[in-house]
Structures are given as structure tokens and as C-alpha cells.
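Why Ribosomal RNA small subunit methyltransferase E? Reviewers of the renewal asked for a concrete example.
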Amino acid sequence: MPAVDEVRDTRALIAWVAQTVQSGGVVLVLHEEARTPISTAMESMRLPAPGSAPLVLAVVVGPEGGISPEETAALEAAGAMTVRLGPHVMRTASAGPVALAVLAHASGLWE
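Here is what the prediction returned.
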């Protein structure tokens, strides 16, 4: 079930991303300049078998104005994947819920 986690500063977020990815989780960073669509990222993920431990899947949504190139590079170096929702840039307030809906649909959560 989707949960909204605490707000973190950049340094704490990068450390959390590295820990999450090292333990088998997936972290997606929404970015307007990303080349990979979120749907393509979902296709490449291995979802856990029913009854096994759930996959930790996190979506990072930046502030209005976007995530800086330095922050993006640091998140990618920590193991996060930058993805885009589509051809149009969304406001921060919309991007997170839209991403969760796309991921829930793609994972079969609503079937």
C-alpha cells in the first residue's frame, strides 16, 4: 500500500536511496528531462512473487522548479533511476499522485 514518507534533506535522501537500493528496493526519481518513461522502468522491474516479501518501491518528487542537476547526479550515483511521467511537466502536487496511480495500475494492484 502506498505510504508517504517523511521529507528529507538532500544528504539524508541520498543516504536513504543508497540503503534502499542496496537492500533490493527500487527508487524512481521523477524528472522532466529523463529519457526513460515510468512505464518502461516498470517493465524492467521484477515484481515479487505472491506471498513473498514486498518490493520497496519509492518515488522521489522534487520541489516546484525541479531537482538540480547536482542532486539528480547524486541520486543516480546512489542507485536511483530517473524517469518521466510523460511529455508534459506536472506540478509537484500532481506528479506524486499520478506516479502512484501509474505504478499501482502497472503492478496489478487494482486488478
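The chain has one domain: 10-107. This is the kind of structural detail the renewal will allow us to pursue systematically.
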